[in-house]
Each structure stands twice: as C-alpha cells, then as structure tokens.
Amino acid sequence: MFETLLSDERAIEGLPVRLVVALVVGVASLSVMMNMLSGLSAVGVSELDVRPQPEVTAPGDGSVAVTVVGPGGAPVSNATVIARGDSARLDGVATARTNASGVATFDIDPSLGPNQADGTVAFEVKPPSGSRYVDRRANTDLLVVRG
C-alpha cells in the first residue's frame, strides 16, 4: 500500500490547480467583503460641490461669489472654500467662509500666460466641522478666458 502511494502521481498534479482556485476564490471573497465594509462608513455622507458666479471671467476680474451646495442643491453654510490657481495663475491661495446663504466671496486676480487663451481656477471645500458632508470629488472650476 505504501508503494502504491509513492507511485501515484495524480495528487501532485491536481494539488497546485486546487490551491490556485482556492486562492482566487478567497481573494475575490475578501475583496467583496472589504468593499461592503468600506461602503458602510459612507452611509449618510453627502458630497459637496461649488457653483462659481460668474462661471466664466476674464483675466484681472476680481470678484467671484462661490456657492457651496449639497447633493440636492441646498446651500451649505459655515464651510471653508479654498481657491487655487490651476491652469490660470493666482497670487497665492485664497480662502473664504460661506455665510448663512452658503456663499463665499473672493477678490482674486486670475492671470494667464503670454500664449495662453484660457485657464481655470480650482476650488476645494472644507466641510463644516461635525457635519455629514465630504468633498472627495473634483468641484466645478472657474473658467478664465482672454477677451
């Protein structure tokens, strides 16, 4: 009997395939479970966006009102908005806090490069502390167009 086990090579052939199948099934199951667990922390959290007014401006125009809105379009008060030069340039970073109407006002002076026809100013939102808001996705940019 011991000799038949030594001469039987079938178990060696099937073992690696079974291990690979078990590993693939285990990793797939773990991935699904981790995705479910990470989704639980996001329950009840709402993404913020901004609505700059005007949406399009010329280089050198200074006043921009940015409304921070929740997913239903409702304004969000007491949020901090950060304006940064993206493909348009700003002199540093500008910050403003939204009022009770969800509006933050900036006095910025965007500029473009010598051969640049247009550019953008990017906005980032820091939600009010203790709120169920997040700002993970890209927000609406301010378009700067040479007139």
UniProtKB/TrEMBL annotation:
Residues 44-106 form the DUF7382 domain. InterPro entries: DUF7382. This is Carboxypeptidase regulatory-like domain-containing protein.
